[in-house]
Amino acid sequence: MILNHGDSPVQAKRIFPEIPAPFNFQGARQEVFMKTCNFDGCDRPHKAKGYCCSHYSQLRRFGRTWSLVKNEYRFKGDICFVSVRSKDGFFKYEFMIDREDYQEVSKHVWCDTKGYVCCRDNGRVVYIHNFLMGVVPGVIYVDHRKRTPKDNRKKNLRVCSHMQNTMNCGKQKNNKAGFKGVSWCNIKKKWRAAISANGKYFHIGYFNDPIEAAEAYNIAAKTHHGEFACINNVQQSIGRRG
Ligand SMILES: [Zn+2]
User: Fold this and answer.
1) Superfamily of the domain at 169-241
2) Among 17-26, 192-201, 210-219, which stretch is predicted with the lowest mean pLDDT?
């Protein structure tokens, strides 16, 4: 018997009874989806090499896998410590918040950006100090009183202007004197103390000893910067010198 064009399927089946049932793509796909990730405690769908999409990506990029939990929280009294991971999944540091802020803070994923803690909200970077104080940066800023960005308890945060914020920043990285407001003057061969306030630059004086210059800066800072003054720790330097 020969199958002719236009024969009915019933007739076709009579001629070729061994025709296999069509491959069930839908069923096969569901089976793949039901397989989950091999990582302990991860129940995400399988992607490749036994892992889910995220764990497979970790393995491919860094050669190892780690928990997808980005922040871990622990409490000590009124303080909540939040851990931050580096890009390659290792523990980076812990930052502090008040226990009462835990609820709101734990709704986001926190990571490190150049020493400051931030999260992403609709693609926008939100720093934790602004988040906690409810400030959208622009006109108003939030300052860390003790210049410790890892301490985000409310008592270390205060709302300020941009100018006040710059007053409270520590000495610059390239500072050779070790004191804020003190620099070496190569022409006079002396240490020079200077301060800027309200957009103006004030010369304080020249000194033989950088500690003297630092003390002079401290006095000027208290008058010009008030409570936002960043005072040089002169005593500590004297102690170190012996
Ligand atoms: Zn996984």
Assistant:
1) AP2/ERF domain (3.30.730.10)
2) 17-26
